[in-house]
Amino acid sequence: MMLTYPPTLPIQPFTKPVRGSVTLPGSKSITNRALILAALGKQTVTLRGALFSRDTRLMIAALRQLGFVVETGEPALTIRVEGRGGEIPVREAKIDVGNAGTAARFLTALVCLRPGGTYHFDGDEAMRRRPIGALLEALESQGAKASARSFPFTLRTAGLRGGAVDLDASASSQMLSALLMVAPQAKSPLTVRLKGEAGPKPFVTMTETMLRQFATAPAEYQIEGDASAASYFLALPLVTGGEISFTNYGGPLQGDVRFRDVVAAVSSSRRGVARDFREFSDTFLTLAALAPLLSGPTKISGIAHTRKQETDRVAGMARELTKLGQHVIETEDTLEIHPRPLQAGVGIETYHDHRFAMSFAILGCHDLRKNGRPWLTVKDPGCCAKTFPAFFDLLAGLRAGSH
Length: 403
Hints:
This protein is α/β, with parallel strands linked by helices. It is 33% helix and 21% strand. The strands form six sheets. It has a four-stranded mixed beta sheet with strand order 4-5-3-12. Strands 6-7-9-8 form a four-stranded mixed beta sheet, with helices on one face. A four-stranded mixed beta sheet has the order 14-15-17-16, with helices on one face. The longest helix is centred in the middle third of the chain and has 15 residues, at 201-215.
C-alpha cells in the first residue's frame, strides 16, 4: 500500500512517555541484494519479510523490464523470483533507477553479463549527481561501452570476461558490492583490485555473506528488519521518555545495529558524545537531530562520503540545525553541534531525503512548548516512501497508544 501525505506535516509532540512495540520494515539493503542474487541463481527463491518501498519497487520493475519473472505478495511481504543462472533475458531495455543507489549500481553491473546488450539508464535529478563513473570504468575494462560517466547513459554490454578489474569505490561501497555479486558469473575468475579505500565496510561484508548464503541455493530467504529504520525508534525514548520493544531487530547482517551502542551511551548521561559514524553512517542524522536536546557538544565524524548520497547530508544537516538555532561547526568529514535553545515554528527541508524527514520527526516529538502543540514541521514527508512508507503512521500509532 502506498500512503500519501500533505506537502508539509506538523509533528505532534508526545506529552507522555512512549510505550509500545515496533515491527520494522524489511531492510532495503538486504531486499535489493536478495533480488539480484535470486535473479542470478538457477532456481526460484521466495523472499520473506521483504521491503515494499520506492527503492525496492524500482528494482522489481527493472528486473521485470530485463525479462525476469518476479511475483509479489505485498500483504504477506513476499517476493518470488525465478532465477536465470546468470542470463539476462532481454537484449535491450530502458531502466529507471529513481534515486535508488542500490538499484543504480547493482543493475548497471548485472546487465553487463549479457553479450551484445543495449540498456538505457536514467533516474531522478538527484541521481544525476551521484557517483557511478568509477563502476562504469571498471565495466568498460571488461568490454562494456558507456555513453557517459553519469546518469543518463546508454550501456552496450559484452559479457564479463573475468581477470583483474580496478575499481575506486571510495565514493560508494555499492560499486564494489555490484561487482562482487556478478563476479561468479564471469567467464573466468574475476578479481577486483581496489584503488583506495572502499566506502563503509559493513555493506561489503553484508554482500559477501549473502553471496555465501545464496550459493547454497535456498528455496526461501528471510529478510532482516531494517536496522537503519530502527535508529529512529531507538532514539524516540530519549526524546519522550518511556521505552520501545522490537519484534524483528538485531540480525547479524547490518552494521547499523551499532547505533544502539550510541543510544546506550547517550541514555546513561544525557550528554553529547563524539562518535565516528563511517561504518554506520545512515544513522548519523538520527543523532545529529537529537543533539539539541543533549547537554554539551556532539561531534560526528567519518561522514564525508554522505555528501554524495541522496543529497549532501552533511551540509543539509548543518543548515537545518542552524535554522533551529543551534551552533554548528561543519568540516568536510565532521559536524560539531553545540546545543542552544530550540527555535519554534521552523519548517525542515528534507531535500527529497527520507532520513532528514524521519530524523527531524523524532526531534519534533519533543514537547518543546509543554502544551502538546506542534512546533516543528517536516516538508515533503512523502519522501519516506523511499525506504519506510508507513513511518509517520507508525509514529502516530505509538503516540496514540502512549497517550
